[in-house]
Write the C-alpha cells for this entry.
Amino acid sequence: MHSSMPASPARWVLQPEQVLPTWQIIAENDATDSANPMHDDASARQLGFAGGLVPGVTLYGYLTHPLIALFGEAFLHQGSFEARFRRPVYTGETLTTYVRVSACNNATYTFELALKNAAGEACVVGSASFPGEAQELPTLTHSVPLPAVRRPATPEALGSNPQLGTLHEIFTPAQSAVLLRGMGEDLALYQSVVHPAWLLRQANMVVDSNVAVGPWIHVASKIAHFGVVHLNEPYTVHARVAGLSVQKNHDYADFEVTIATTQVVMWVMHRAIYRMGAALPA
C-alpha cells in the first residue's frame, strides 16, 4: 500500500468547483546543458521552434506548487498526477497555474489542472487526485548495469530488450538550491525533500543514459507518489520500455520508470516522441 506519511493538518475542506489560489512564475529553460537538443536554442530553431524548450518536467514542477502548498508532504506520499504537454514554452514567458476541484468522493479530491501562458492558452493540461487510489507498491526490479554503448533510438533496438540500465543518484543541498532558485520555488518543504520535478527529470535522464536519442519531446506523464527522497539520500532509477507506437509519422515510446530509496517513492509512465518524422510546428 502507500507508504506511511507524516502527521497531517486538520482535514482539508474543499468544495467542488473551488479554484485554488494561483501561482505565477517566469519560465526558465533549466536544461540548457541537457543531452537533448530540444533545449538548445540553435538546434530547436532548426526544427521550427522559436528557441530551446522549457522542459516538460519543469512545467510539471510549476503545476505541483498549489497542490503541495495545500497538502504539504502528504501529497508526495499519497497523491497522483497526470500531465499532458500541449504547447511549447520558452524562457521568459509568464505562466499561471489553474487548479480546480472537479470532484470530492469518499474524502478523495480530484482536480482539473492547467498551466496557462500570458495569452490564456493552456500549455499543460492534466488532472490530480489526493489521496490517490490505494494501490500496491510497484514491483522493483534488480539493478541493471548501464550499457557501455547506448542503443540506437529505433523501434528494433528499443523493442529488443525492454529493460534499461539503472541510475544510482544522490541530490545534494547545493544542487537543490540551484533548482529551487531557477523554479522560483519557496516552499519550506524543499529545504529537506527533493522536489518532484527533479524526480520526474530522472525519467529523461535514464532514457538519455541508455538510448542514443537525438531531439526528442516529452509529451505526457502519469505519476503516482508513494514517498519522498531526502537531500543527500541515495536513490535508484529503474526503467523499461513499456510500449512503442507511431502517430502522425512520429515514433512514440512509453517508458515505465520507478524511483526508489529503501522503497518505491515514485512511479511514472513517461511518454515521448523519440524520433520525429518531420519538424513539429512552433
